[in-house]
Structures are given as C-alpha cells and as structure tokens.
Specification:
The chain has 577 residues and is α+β, with helices and mostly antiparallel strands. The chain has 23 helices and 17 strands.
Length: 577
C-alpha cells in the first residue's frame, strides 16, 4: 500500500503541464494552457490546464482531474501504475506501507474496496493452481497474457474457501461486498464456487465486483454476477472499459457485446476496444459513459433470438442519450454465432470488415418496425405509426429525429406535418445546445466559497475556523475535511489537498468543487475573499449559537433564572430586536 503522505508530496512536486504536454501538445492561453480535448472529438480547443491549481478541465465534455487522473484516463493506467509513472518522472522512489497485523484491532472491519481487491488476488492465485481451469481457458483460445491483462481468476469448489483469506468470515462487509451469501438458517458460504472469475473494474482500475462463469456446462446459471453494492451498480458499469479506453480512442469506436468471454476473446484477436454490459440491457448511463471516449458505438450481440432481443432493447434504451454527433450502429451476426465464436472462426480482419457494414440506428429501427409488417394495408400503416410513436417521442437529437420522422412518414404514406399533428410529437426545430452551456454554474454557498479559498491558500486556515462546522450535512463534512487538510498541509497545492479530502466527501460534491476551482478567477485577491467569507461565517455561527441559547433560556421559568442568565436573556433579546 502506498502511503498517503507520499502521494501528497508527489502531487506537490509534479507539474501537470509537463505530464499532459507529453501526450497532448499544449499551447499557452493566458494564465493557463489549452488544447483540443483528448477525451472527445472537437474542432476548437475547450480543454484547459491550470499550472497554478494543477488541474485539467474540459468545458465541452466535463472531463477534469489531476495528473494522476489524466494518466489513468488517457493512458489507461491503474492508480498504482499512475503513481509509479509520475514518481519516475520526478526521480522519487515509491515506498510501500507495511502493516503490523498484530497491532490491528480484530474488531476493525476491512473496507469494501480492500475486501474486493484481496478476493481478486486470491482468485488469481487459485487459477494458477487449477489445471482444469487453465485448460478451460486455453480451450477457449485465451493466452496467459490476456488472462493476466484482464486479471482473470478462479473460484475453486467448496463452500467456505474465502475463510482462509478473511479470518473474520462472519464480518458483514463480506456480505455487503457480495462475496458471501447467508441462507435462511444463518449459514454463510461463498457466493462464487467452481467458476472462472472476471473482476469488474471502475474507471480508476479498482475492483468493484465480479462475474463468474461456469466451467461445467451442466451447471447453472451460466454467468453469475456480484449483486449491486455501494460500489457497484450494473446499470452504470461496463465490463472491460478500464482496459479498453486507450484502444477505443485509437480505433475511434467502441464495440458493445453481451458477455465477458466475448470481450476477452476479441481482445485475444487484437480487437481491444470491446466492452460488455453486466447482466443487464445497455442503459443511457452506459451510452453517456462511452460518449466520453468516442462518437461511434457498434453493438454486436449473439445471432440467436435472445441476442436480437438484446440488440433491440439496447437501441431503445439508447434513445434518450442520442446526440446528432453520435453514431450508433448494429452488427447482426448469423444465428449460429456470437462475437467470440465468429472472431475465432473468421479472424480479426473479417470481423472488422463486417463492422464497417454495420447497420446505422435509423436503418435498424426502420427494419425492425417493418420486419413483420408488409405495409400493404391501411391497418398495416396504422400499426407502423402506433409502434413508431413512443420511439420518436424519446429522441432529443433534432437532426436525427427529423430524418427518422421523414422516413416513417414516407413508409406510412402521410406527410411530416400530418404525422406530427396526428401523433402530437414535440417540435424538433430547436437548435442543439452548445456543449459549454451544459457546464452551468449555480450560485456558490458561503461554505463552498470558503473551501475554494482554503484550497487556493491553505496557509490561511486556523484551528478556530472548525467552529464554523455546525452540523453533519454534506457542506459541513466538506468544510471540516478542507480545514483539516489545509491545517495539516499549509504549503500544498490545490490538487494535493483535493486528493486528501476526496475519500471523505460525496463524489458529486467533489466534482462540483473541482469544476468551480478550475473556473475560479486567478486574479482575485484570495486573502481578501477569504477574510470576507470568514467574517460572514463567524456572524452566521454566532447568530445560530445566540438563537439556540435564547430559545433555551426562554423555555426556563423566569423565577428559576440566575442573575447572569437574566442579564444574558436581556442582552440577547435586545440583539435580536
């Protein structure tokens, strides 16, 4: 484990401008540097890097972060790999923090992240011990290098193997992490048994869940996923995305398939830009996440009826996320094939050639609606309009909506105007909002402004400022975390301070503070701004304290008050008036 103190020192020594400029040439633009965003396609630069704050931010797609985050997002490195890469650039040696297990209280419960990572390491080690599991993977055409790249493991047979990894097998965290199951009689046992294990990673490369595939074809279910946990929501995550990000940007497309083995087998054949939904249909969240990487997404599911049903569900779920710059296409394989079997039989070149002829979304929708509809009668055309109506209502991309409406109207034998009036479709003549308009800025609260000044000049923090923390709301948690970080690291850069407070606050709030920090005008007199915010917070705190004391004194019978309390009540009442 890398000590947190080392990470802080590293962020204070590296220069994010040098780090990013090696991959994305930057140009000086006032106090900052700019370039076309490497995370989405654009013609004019909206990606800026601040040498003062040590942050990057894109006003188009919203991407932002530190030097560590950039290496993880752009180069596809894990958190630990990014730390080692940055340390090498500034000639620092990464230390490892050792733990004295004898001194760790037995009642201390391991965190979800650590539990899942330990389980992943255990499964990887078990794969090396099982010739049966190794032979299965070799039989599927996978090399040891690909298995290592995706950190594939094996859960051996047996009911409580994880007890050897986690002595506190009864710990609730194992249940929360989805590693163990408890039956109605209260007996606990391993969720995954005799299965090939596929770790699921988040965008930082951290393990957040698992997918397990049977080796014995008679066992069921074929695939078994982790349940949803505080770290893992199926509708938000895509298997293989962390590994595939660089390949997606290089290829200019993402390929969405159904299963883990499809992703891994395609990577084995050099198609490294594939991802898979996790036991659920593709959602708008998945589409939005992929749009951060590319503007072309190809869906390729199994050629059987179940695969075609999954493809149609993916198309329908993608409609709310559509934009006019996004290309969605569908590759429908022969019935006897899935992506895994197809690429193994025909190879990479044939598979990619088929992708070039994948069906555009508009064509796919029209084909699906007219597949079993001969459109010979008026009733057939009414059916077409009825089935097209809910689809057309969901599409917000104006140009795409216009062209699809024209095609549907043509097939139904009506004019565009007649169809819009008949179906009462929303108007589509609004021009699309510019990307920068999405980065709206709500007025900042006093506590958030105070935190921004602290991040810019941590030396201004004083211990008595902790008195401003009056509750347990998210802003109070943010304020306390920022004050403690500033008091402990008065000379640190904003990026290092934000890294310190990140685990303590809500992700949404952290992103808001990062964005506002990047947009903060560097010409401001931060000391003066800080003093103004401090004065207002002090007055608010005093008013709140006086109000609480006044209420408490008023509740007491007058004849029970001491002389001091009566004088205090008199002064507080005068102040309130």
């Amino acid at each position: 484990m890398i000590p947190e103190s080392f990470i802080q020192e590293l962020l204070n020594r590296v220069d994010i401008v040098d780090v990013i400029d090696k991959s994305v040439p930057l140009k000086k633009a006032g106090a900052n540097y700019s370039a076309c965003c490497p995370f989405h396609n654009e013609k004019s630069p909206s990606f800026t890097v601040s040498p003062t704050k040590q942050f990057y931010h894109c006003f188009g797609c919203g991407a932002h972060g530190t030097a560590i985050g950039f290496l993880m997002e752009y180069a596809g490195l894990s958190f630990v790999e990014a730390i080692h890469e940055l340390a090498k650039n500034v000639s620092m040696i990464v230390p490892q923090e050792t733990r004295d297990t004898e001194r760790v209280p037995q009642k201390v419960m391991l965190g979800l992240q650590e539990v899942l990572q330990q389980a992943a390491s255990y499964y990887k080690a078990e794969l090396k011990k099982s010739q049966r599991a190794i032979d299965y993977l070799k039989g599927r055409g996978l090399s040891g290098q690909i298995a290592a790249k995706f950190q594939i493991g094996y859960a051996p047979p047996g009911w409580q193997n994880l007890e050897s990894v986690f002595p506190q097998y009864e710990s609730e965290v194992l249940n929360t992490a989805g590693l163990v199951v408890e039956n109605e009689q209260g007996r606990r046992y391993d969720r995954f048994r005799d299965r090939i294990m596929f770790p699921i990673h988040d965008q930082k490369g951290q393990v957040i869940g698992f997918g397990g595939r049977v080796i014995n074809p008679e066992d069921t279910p074929k695939y078994y996923n982790s349940p949803e946990t505080p770290l893992f929501q199926k509708g938000h995550e895509l298997y293989g995305l962390f590994v595939a990000r660089r390949a997606i940007r290089d290829a200019g497309r993402a390929l969405v398939v159904e299963g883990y083995m499809d992703v891994v087998a395609l990577a084995q054949y050099g198609i490294e830009y594939a991802v898979a939904a996790l036991g659920t249909a593709t959602t708008p969240f998945h589409i939005t996440k992929l749009m951060r990487q590319t503007d072309e997404i190809v869906f390729c599911f199994d050629g059987d009826n179940a695969g075609r049903t999954a493809a149609w569900r993916a198309a329908m779920n993608a409609l709310p996320a559509l934009t006019d710059s996004l290309k969605l296409r569908f590759l429908l394989l022969p019935k006897e094939h899935d992506p895994d079997s197809y690429v193994r039989e025909f190879g990479k070149e044939k598979f990619e050639a088929e992708m070039q002829h994948a069906m555009p979304l508009s064509q796919y929708i029209v084909q699906h609606l007219s597949e079993e509809n001969p459109l010979n009668s008026q009733e057939d055309k009414v059916k077409l309009l009825n089935e097209a109506e809910p689809i057309l209502r969901q599409i917000q991309a104006p140009r795409f909506a216009l062209m699809l409406r024209k095609r549907i109207a043509e097939l139904a034998g009506v004019t565009d105007t007649e169809m819009q009036s008949l179906l009462k479709l929303p108007a589509i003549n609004k021009s699309p909002a510019k990307a920068t308009q999405r980065q709206s800025r709500a007025p900042l609260s006093l506590k958030k402004r105070f935190v921004l000044m602290l991040l810019m000049q941590p030396g201004l923090a004083k211990t008595e400022h902790l008195n401003f923390v009056q509750g347990f709301g998210e802003e109070d948690v943010l304020l306390k975390a920022a004050l403690n970080a500033a008091l402990a690291q008065p000379q640190s850069r904003p990026a290092a301070l934000l890294h310190t407070i990140a685990p303590q606050i809500d992700t949404r709030l952290l992103h808001e503070i990062q964005r506002e920090l990047h947009l903060l005008d560097e010409s401001l007199d931060f000391a003066l701004e800080f003093e103004g915010a401090r004065t207002q917070l002090a007055e608010m705190t005093q008013q709140r304290q006086h109000g609480g004391l006044l209420d408490a004194l008023k509740e007491k019978p007058l004849n029970t008050l001491t002389v001091e309390e009566r004088e205090m009540l008199k002064n507080l009442t005068v102040k309130k008036i």
